[in-house]
Task: structure prediction
Amino acid sequence: MSSPRPPRPRPRRRALRAALAALVPVSLLGTCAGSAHAVPKAAWPEPVAVVSRVETTDPVVFVTLDDGWNHDPAAAKLLLDRRVPASLFLLPGAYAYDSGYFHTLLDQGPSRVENHTVSHPDLTALDAAGQKAEVCGAREAHLAEFGDGPRLLRPPYGAYDATTRTTARACGAKAVVTWTHDLTTWGTDPVPMPRLKAGDIVLLHFNGTVEQDLRRVLDAAEAAGLRPAPLRGYVGE
Ligand SMILES: [Zn+2]
Result:
């Protein structure tokens, strides 16, 4: 008596594979992947970690500067003179009209360009394709302009969701980075300076007070016995 093979598992597996394939945007795994072996096919990229401060006993603090609209020569001079390894989370639009400012910072100093999306949206309001366009788009723009791919993603407003963490991986980032202290002066008075601790991530912006803000942070770090260090080197894969 022949016992026909149970017909159900195969179609089920096929259906499952088809469902998975539909879920995984193939392009997400292609050109934007940091490295092919790190992103197994038919699976979501593993979500990256979210880092708001670094656990370390090294006497270090991390200086990060966002957006890039104000190209203050005094701030650039300060960064270069003090050899500050800042993480620059730039928007492509903020260097489109004057890339020389950032070329100088990146080529002549230890700062690095990082990912802050293309158009500064709240990523949590976008679907996977929308997030990918913003994050991979910024990576491609940075690569084209500076020849250096970002390794860290700072989501605008610090707003991220589970999709952001997988998108970051697919677009070559090894962490989503928020911050410990936002010390940007937005109004007339500077934010009261907290006691900086080892591993703190400080957020500043390229705004009208960037040089003064930067100077205050560097002075506070020095007073606390901390030196600015490159964030990329302290954030794991
Ligand atoms: Zn921003």
About this structure: The beta strands are 49-51, 60-67, 87-90, 112-115, 152-153, 175-177, 181-182, 201-205, 227-228. Helices lie at 9-23, 26-29, 73-81, 92-96, 100-108, 128-146, 162-170, 210-223. The pocket of zinc ion is lined by residues 66-67, 116, 120, 156 (CB under 6 Å). The chain has one domain: 9-234.
